[in-house]
TrEMBL record:
Any GO BP annotation: L-serine biosynthetic process
Single GO MF annotation: NAD binding
Keyword line: NAD, Oxidoreductase
Signal sequence range: none
Family matches, as PROSITE patterns: D_2_HYDROXYACID_DH_2 (PS00670), D_2_HYDROXYACID_DH_3 (PS00671)
Pfam family, one: 2-Hacid_dh_C
Protein name: Glycerate dehydrogenase
Organism: Marinobacterium stanieri
Length: 317
């Protein structure tokens, strides 16, 4: 097979030989602009992508195309119907970032509760040098032990965050699926979770039911001084409402690894440095060396599965 990888940038510091060893030829591009896609995939049997869009017209015109591998879980950048119409399997990567994202969430949670960034800035500004005593206690420090964590989205990621949080002595509540009329055993309603939790951690996909799930109304129901952590998708939390809740002092802090537009080339409300106790990370929670290595290994397995007539992690029919 001849293979082309259209956007290697998030993996190009790693060894791609597990993939290249599966094919006769592997051509790699760090990035590919939309107008370059059709030309670059022409004549290739296998197209590997991360965020590059493969729309219906592109798939239909790629006469040699036999397999599409996505080095991510989300496949909304591929027209699955067009691929299925031509009998082209689309295989993705799954479960690779559970440990990485979960530890990132706990890191954010700890940083918010200990005011880690505030103390780091204070020390670098010379506040400790000028202190009248041996320590600085300018920012309130909270313990995780005994606090209640509310989780929205209880797949593999949510479950691992719950496990880690319980190791710190946190009580864990899990919300019923957003949009569902039923509350299964072991779950609570979203309203109860909002009113009860000291920390809310989001791990649900962005859908019609979850867009702006955490809006001004939801934030107002949360306990004063509580925290919001979003490692899901930017649109799940209304950014303007979150900024207002932080600036008013209603929330004690928040952290987000995602924004509504990524990268935020036009800026973003949450990038305002004056917002108190807010941490923004650049969609990096998933990106541990181990997680990204797993993506490469899964892509190798996806290719081998296709070659053996048994595609794995195929997301279309």
């Amino acid at each position: 097979m001849r293979a082309v990888f259209l956007d290697t940038q998030s993996l190009d510091d790693l060894d791609l030989s597990p993939v290249s060893d599966c094919v006769e030829e592997l051509v790699c591009y760090p990035t590919t602009a939309p107008e370059q896609v059709a030309e670059r995939i022409a004549g290739f049997d296998l197209v590997i992508i991360n965020k590059v869009v493969l729309d219906a017209s592109t798939i239909q015109a790629a006469e040699s195309l036999k397999l599409i591998c996505v080095v991510a879980t989300g496949v909304n950048n591929v027209d699955l119907n067009a691929a299925s119409a031509r009998g082209i399997p689309v295989c993705n990567s799954q479960g690779y970032g559970v440990n990485a994202v979960a530890q990132h969430v706990l890191g954010l949670m700890l940083a918010l509760h200990t005011r880690l960034l505030d103390y780091d800035r204070a020390v670098k500004n010379g506040d400790w040098n000028r202190s009248s005593q041996f320590c600085l206690l300018d920012f309130p420090i909270l313990e995780l032990n005994g606090r209640t964590l509310g989780i929205i989205g209880y797949g593999a990621l949510g479950q691992e965050v719950a496990r880690l949080a319980s190791c710190f002595g946190m009580k864990v509540l899990v919300a019923a699926r957003p949009g569902s009329d039923q509350i299964p055993a072991g779950r609570v309603s979203l309203e109860e979770l909002l009113e009860t939790a000291d920390v809310i951690s989001l791990h649900c996909p962005l859908t019609e039911q979850t867009k702006d799930l955490i809006d001004a109304t939801a934030l107002a129901k949360m306990k004063p001084g509580s925290f919001v952590i979003n490692a899901a998708r930017g649109g799940v939390v209304n950014e303007a409402a979150l900024k207002d809740a932080l600036c008013s002092g209603h929330l004690g802090g928040a952290a987000s690894d995602v924004l509504t537009e990524e990268p935020p080339r036009k800026g973003n409300l949450l990038l305002d440095a004056t917002i108190p106790n807010l941490i923004i990370t650049p969609h990096s929670a998933w990106g541990s060396i181990q997680a990204r290595t797993t993506i490469i290994e899964q892509t190798r397995d996806n290719i081998r599965g296709y070659q053996n007539g048994q595609p794995v992690r195929q997301v279309n029919t």
